[in-house]
């Protein structure tokens, strides 16, 4: 273990280990932990298997090291399941450290959070702040509402949260529709005396920005003392996701911390969302000479996105061809998005083929190519792509939207399936559409992606998930859990042109601000205008 930590030399440590005639449990554990520290997870697993089949009894430390290895391996879920069976069989499931490490492993490997919770319950009232943090962390990204409920349960049991738990809970708050949960957590942070903690302040900036309140993010940033590079990056990212490119550049000019690669990803992203092509190009070309930051894959992806959105498709393709590393799926998806926006079908086919090659199980390349063909009226070719998806069992991510009403997050799918209020929502939506048509609304039926009659295409567009969420919010204005003349909606995929136009008109009609967070950015609709200036 000493060799691994001081020299990074797993091979030297292995030589010492092999020279031991009779290694004991401490020796086995030290070598397994050494492999784990050096990032040689497979060698650690092989050694553990050898240890187990040799009849050497392992202990808690052995299991924690092996589970830590699994967290760093993308294909370790099956091994994790087998290890859990062994842990249950040997009784180590009741050990807090082992159960917590098992929860983390399952969560990191994409296991079901319900399975994580069952493991957590095995501790039967002996959970400590570390095990609680582990289970809240498992839920934070995939079910943030449940993560907040678990945090409340933790507080009810009179346990004291630490800094790490607060940072995880604020991360969960970033996945919710409104900022009220983040502010409630921040009040707990102040109550226990962590108000000067830079990590927590950074997490608050991020959470408020992700919940649609750039003003609260700026307030948190302005009151911070001291600020580190992450603080500046968090605020730059906040401006970027809200499309405030000029504000991002103004902030960067005041930055008194050393910028890093993430700083320039945030700046380039801000340029992309604000259509600041020349500024983005200048930053990209000078970041190496002026700041010593060599562009990496994510910087190239941002630059391809900037050029693609602006219609400079040939320049984007030229940049990809000159990249010093192989472009990844993010680069090709950015390029494909630009091709889709500007109707470059030939190059779109190339990008889609690259995406299928790099991510054969991801639907993005198939869906965007199908959309391009459908928009051009080439429904046969679009149908062939959908059949290809079915043949390869590639599933399109369903369009979902969320809105918070009455202390509860409501989920909507396109078509309003599984909503008990479905008929009432449809009735109100039809009334709203009639009013909007008098107001100038013309459904963008070119966005409906099937070879059907125009009237059917209009109906198909009406039932997109964000429209249903908006109507439900208008039906429940008195039950909103946040104040102000504003409606906040979250969406998991990019908002379509028709829904974008719809939101602009509704904001004028009902005299309210409508904030939609889609997969790319925030849209603030007010008085028939969107903050993105129709550039997204």
**Low-pLDDT sequence parts:** 450-457
Counted by DSSP, the helix tally is 28
User: What kind of sheet is the major sheet?
Assistant: 6 strands, mixed
* Gross geometry: globular
Sheet with the most strands: spatial strand order:
2-1-3-4-5-6
- Cα radius of gyration in angstroms: 26 Å
**Overall average residue pLDDT:** 89
Class from secondary-structure proportions: mainly alpha
Give the proportion of residues in helices: 55-70%
Task: State the separation between the terminal residues, measured CA to CA.
Answer: 51 Å
| DSSP E strands, number | 6
Q: Can you give a write-up of this model?
A:
It is a single chain. This protein is mainly alpha-helical and 536 residues long. It is built from 28 helices and 6 strands. The chain has helices spanning 2-7, 10-18, 25-37, 41-53, 60-71, 77-89, 96-108, 113-121, 129-142, 144-156, 163-173, 180-191, 198-210, 214-222, 229-241, 245-253, 261-274, 277-291, 297-309, 313-322, 329-342, 345-358, 364-375, 379-391, 422-438, 454-462, 465-475, 497-509, and strands spanning 400-405, 408-413, 486-491, 513-517, 522-526, 529-530. A 6-stranded mixed sheet has the order 2-1-3-4-5-6, covered by helices on one side. A hairpin with a 2-residue loop joins strand 1 and strand 2 (408-413). Helix 9 runs parallel beside helix 11 (163-173). The radius of gyration is 26 Å and the shape is globular.
